[in-house]
Amino acid sequence: MIYRENGHFKTSYAADRQIFPIPQDRWAILAILAFAFAGVPLLADEYLFRAILIPFLILSLAALGVNLLVGYCGQITLGAGAFMAIGAYAAYNFMIRIDDMPLLAALLLGGLASAAIGIVFGTPSLRVRGLYLAVATLAAQFFWDWAFLRIKWFTDYSPSGSVSIANLHVFGWKIDSPLDKYLLCLAVLTLFALLAKNLVRGAIGRQWMAIRDMDVAAEVIGIRPMYAKLSAFAVSSFFLGVAGALWGFIHLGSWEPAAFSIDRSLQLLFMVIIGGLGSIMGSFFGAAFIVILPIFLNQFLPWLGGLVGLGISTAAVSHAEFMIFGALIVFFLIVEPHGLARLWSTAKEKLRLWPFPH
Amino acid sequence: MAFFLETLIAGLMVGMLYSLVALGFVLIFKASGVFNFAQGAMVLFAALAMARFSEWIPGWLGIESLFLANLLAFAITALIMFAVAWLIERLVLRHLVNQEGATLLMATLGIAYFMEGVGQTAFGSDIYEINVGMPKDPVLVLQNVFEGGVLVSKEDLIAALIAALLVAALALFFQKTGTGRALRAVADDHQAAQSIGIPLNRIWVIVWCVAGIVAIVAGIIWGSKLGVQFSLVTVALRALPVVILGGLTSVPGAIIGGLIIGVGEKLSEVYLGPLVGGGIEIWFAYMLALVFLLFRPQGLFGEKIIDRV
């Protein structure tokens, strides 16, 4: 009745092409943004920032990058963690080797370095596809794991192999407290989400989707597979690189290559599949689910054990976490193979007919 | 020369063990199109069960003989793996028919997490050992050809023999039995197989059972080599390049691919490793597979990929 495209008459092409054609959507997004920028800082405490909100924001950004590649261009990757690592270490090297390097510039340069290497490791996608490509991208994962561990130049010859960065500031604004970090991550994520949304509804995004749906057919209608696939790898790696740099600089502070291991890659793939392939919104849902679930289980299981009078050891809790995490993932894949984003769009369809469904 | 030969033989032995794990991947992918990331977890699970039962059984039943205890433990572990296969088909795969490859891959990852949790809850999470009476001492061969001879680990030799026997048995099973023929029919074309009355669900259970047996053998061999511990799951990651090098759908490919990767890994580690700082074997295997893929995108022996628009 109220929530629908009909009845909103457009008088200009710009209005016709806007991202959210339904006014309620625009208001909802603005309200969410206002709440995230102004409301959350008033309500959240330090633990919430550190343990949930900041990881959620950064991993959402990474999941967006993976979703552009896997969900929109159809190229499965298991090497996402490697590109986060490249972003983090490249940004680190720019920061320490160039005097007075601004933080934002270092983040972007880290992303660009990651994008360049993403193009190199994306070239097998021109020959192989599907699961073969997935395993081929593992080559990137293991190679860079090794490189950042063994090639000492990348870690500035630090004896322990872990690197750290301190005194972050953006245009004189000192990034110090969890609140500052949260706001910086939120600002970066908002910009990149807008960028992603616009990319996928533009020419390049449509080329990606054509390649995903049937690459030979796409080639026949004049889409260059090389350009489309490699640009997807580049953009995705750029997102991942920036996310990796944020993860290292903002969330961890000091880190080792293990922070970007194969587990991270699998976690990111989980996020986009649980959240929904080919959906910007889905990346956020997936990231929220995967970030919150282990924390929830970690808190909830001992409480449950105490309730029935069983003292559960920490080892048993971590094993039970494994079990429940695995079982929940299988459960979600079975009941909603298209991800949480599909539930969201179903709800929106329902809302369109409400309150007169016939 | 002797040193080169020694490295080569060690590579071939390790390669044989990789192909053992790779075989599990190929069997399941052929029959159901599922890329089974849980193979590593299955190996760990089977090895844990085997190690703990062979430790418990002498106490329970008062059996002294090591051989008998191991045999019983193997039987119990096999039964458990059959139950796991049946449960996976019943609870997971049946509901995911016709989903995309990536979704199935993620589902098997979920299974892997679940099995890692269950295995460690039920059987404990320390390092255990499997003692099936494998000789640990190395032997010297070809002493009359080279000075000093060539050192070969007897354990590796026996393991490679067992792997070869298992492959031969599987080949016989696939070629000569009615069930094997049904399995090959399903691998060729699901719909056609179903239309002539082959029950798909039962075939899937059987193929997961076979993969379970392969996992037990791999678990015993790797477990007695490295000790039964959580890091056994990474053996599966080492076997992945073998699978794509040989072709996802080819049993001989898994064997040949395993040998190539095993030899390539060992030779690169010995001759190339010191130049760049060592520890290169894990990514070298992937790079090797990648180079092969650039020339043959379907792997060495995989079915040719034909595109229809």
Secondary structure topology:
The complex is a heterodimer of chains A (358) and B (309).
Chain A: H1 13-16, H2 23-43, H3 46-72, H4 80-97, H5 103-122, H6 131-150, E1 163-164, E2 169-170, E3 173-174, H7 178-200, H8 203-213, H9 215-220, H10 225-252, E4 254-255, H11 262-275, H12 280-307, H13 314-335, H14 340-353
Antiparallel strand pairs in A: 1-4, 2-3
Chain B: H1 2-32, H2 39-61, H3 66-91, H4 101-123, E1 138-141, E2 150-153, H5 154-176, H6 178-188, H7 190-195, H8 200-226, H9 234-246, H10 251-276, H11 281-295
Helix pairs in contact in B: 1-5, 1-6, 1-8, 1-9, 1-10, 2-3, 2-4, 2-8, 2-9, 3-8, 5-6, 5-8, 9-10, 9-11, 10-11
Give the gist of this structure.
The complex is a heterodimer of chains A (358) and B (309). Chain A is mostly helical and 358 residues long.
